[in-house]
From TrEMBL:
Keyword Repressor: no
Family note: Belongs to the sigma-70 factor family. ECF subfamily.
BP term (GO), one: DNA-templated transcription initiation
Organism annotation: Paenibacillus glucanolyticus
Residue stretches making up the RNA polymerase sigma factor 70 region 4 type domain: 131-181
Ranges for domain RNA polymerase sigma-70 region: 24-90
Protein name: RNA polymerase subunit sigma-70
Entry-linked CDD domains: Sigma70_r4
Pfam families per the UniProt record, alphabetical: Sigma70_r2 (PF04542), Sigma70_r4_2 (PF08281)
PANTHER family noted in UniProt: RNA POLYMERASE ECF-TYPE SIGMA FACTO (PTHR43133), RNA POLYMERASE SIGMA FACTOR SIGV (PTHR43133:SF60)
Family matches, as SUPFAM superfamilies: Sigma2 domain of RNA polymerase sigma factors, Sigma3 and sigma4 domains of RNA polymerase sigma factors
Length: 189
């Protein structure tokens, strides 16, 4: 693991030392990009989030209080920017339904499948997938954020707990409640 940033390094960056900031940027960029990409599943959006995150990191570095690792602090900024981007883009998803089907929205439908599908069944499945995605979008945020990380970004329970700063049992509970919410809404709609 990389060591925490020192107070001296923060002061050098805040004083405008471009070499220090460039080294700091290059050291952490891949880690932040990976996190953004795992959440958003879209390369250009992940790159945009990382750039925006570095602007926020630079503007708010003076508030970093060394109470946690700098990586944790920066990941929290990236996570919040990703959540904001998902909320802003609810009405216009960045990837196709087919990609989303393979990434998690089809988990209800997969249990009903028997293998080969006719073109009619594929159309029905696409409509059902759209319905499931719509229901996921209507979930309360406390369930939706965990659900998106688990089923659309393939985060482990521990990774979700770390990224959202909560206990693993809380993550499990929210996934369970999120599934129950989806089942109820799926039956009603």
């Amino acid at each position: 693991m990389k060591p925490n940033i020192t107070h001296e390094q923060v002061l050098r960056i805040l004083s405008g030392d471009q070499v220090a900031f460039t080294a700091f940027y290059e050291e952490n960029r891949d880690m932040l990009y990976y996190q953004a990409y795992r959440f958003l599943k879209h390369r250009e959006d992940a790159e945009d989030v990382v750039q925006e995150a570095y602007i926020r990191i630079y503007l708010n570095l003076h508030t970093y209080n060394f109470s946690c690792r700098i990586n944790t602090w920066m990941k929290r900024i990236v996570k919040n920017l990703c959540i904001d981007r998902v909320r802003r883009n609810k009405s216009k998803p960045h990837y196709s339904i087919d990609e989303q089907n393979s990434e998690g929205s089809n988990f209800i439908l997969e249990t009903l499948s028997d293998g080969e599908k006719t073109p009619d069944q594929q159309v029905v499945d696409n409509e059902e997938s759209k319905r499931v995605l719509h229901l996921v979008k209507t979930m309360p945020d406390q369930y939706k954020n965990v659900f998106l990380l688990r089923f659309f970004s393939d985060y482990s329970l521990i990774e979700i707990a770390d990224n959202l700063s909560m206990e693993v049992n809380t993550v499990k509970s929210r996934i369970f409640r999120g599934r129950a919410y989806l089942r109820r809404k799926y039956r009603v709609s």
